[in-house]
Amino acid sequence: MIWRRGCTRVVRRLSAVDDFLLISNAKAGTAAEEAVEAAVGVLRGQRTIRVVATESLEQLSDVLAERAAAKGPGTVVVVGGDGSLHAVAQVLHDRGETRDVVLGLVPLGTGNDFARTVGVVPDPEAAAQQLLAAEERDVDLIVDDAGGVVVNAVHLGLGAEAGVAAKPWKARLGPLGYVVGAVISGFTKPGKDVAVRVDGKPVRGRGRTLQVALGNGRYVGGGTALVPQADPSDGLIDVEVSFADPIMRRLSYAISLRFGVQDKRDDVSQARGSEVHVRGEEFRCNADGEIGDPVTERTWHVEPAALRMLLPPPPAL
């Protein structure tokens, strides 16, 4: 869940003696409270801890501004999923402070796709234990030409359209609503007529584009390996472009995506670089789970080692 704009301000001030600042999304309710309590139970006695629950980007920005002004905790621990980590990274990037803090992560919810890539376990207590033994590692950030950040992955085409189609179904069906949206999009939405360039070189394939994926992390949707080779510390963006637009190819592409072998297909093109440009027919982007407004052109670049994070040793590739 990503913090929304327009809620009241946080007035609680931070102390310069705190070691860890734990930030959770107040809108996550009981689940967030239980995860925070579990993490605090592990960290208490090992670190001085301050816990803040926020409801909006404004609140989040205020908390991080107060931390900076008070020369408060150098480690900010995000208790949440990809959307929460995205929100903190966005505020830090907007403030020019991505290197001024060390980020920790205690996953919450069902997605946690970036946590999967970097080896952070989904259990709050175990994740807190990992924090105590973790090492500081540099992590890249993907940034678009409108200033939006991507911590995990951004994709456009069928996946983003499925997210739009799923919205009216989610209230009634919960997570199953996304599946309904994917089915509707899979059979009703045409591929996109877009051109993709990586470091100025075109990514070629036959026919219309079904999906374009840019990976800093490897997974989306709770464990689907969208960009299986992505490494968030290599200073590059991994790109996969699917041209599997005919219906039967879409079905086989979906199956190969489920098992993380889509990169072996002859209708999937791969590239790796520091800048990606997409231009053409109107499209939406899904960045760390947040679906943006339609655009006809977008450019992303990588900012190597933009983030400092407390993480377990890198998993084997």
Summed up, what is this model?
The chain is of the alpha+beta class.
Please describe the structure with a list of short key phrases separated by commas or semicolons.
317 residues; alpha+beta; Rossmann fold; Tumour Suppressor Smad4; 2 domains; 10-stranded mixed beta sheet; 6-stranded antiparallel beta sheet; 18 strands; 32% strand; disordered N terminus
Task: Give a description of the structure.
A hairpin with a 2-residue loop joins strand 16 (285-287) and strand 17 (290-291). Strands 1, 2, 3, 4, 5, 6, 8, 9, 15 and 18 form a ten-stranded mixed β-sheet that branches. This protein has helices at residues 30-43, 57-69, 82-94, 113-118, 124-133, 158-173, 176-188, 247-258; strands at residues 20-25, 49-54, 75-80, 102-107, 135-144, 149-150, 153-157, 194-198, 201-202, 211-215, 219-220, 224-225, 237-242, 268-273, 275-283, 285-287, 290-291, 295-311. Residues 1-17 and 176-181 have low confidence and may be disordered. With 317 residues, the protein is α+β, with helices and mostly antiparallel strands. Helix 1 packs parallel to helix 5, helix 2 (57-69) packs across helix 3 and helix 6 (158-173) packs across helix 7 (176-188). The protein has two domains: 20-133, 3-Layer(aba) Sandwich (Rossmann fold); 153-304, Tumour Suppressor Smad4 (Sandwich). The longest helix has 16 residues, at 158-173. It contains eight helices and 18 strands.
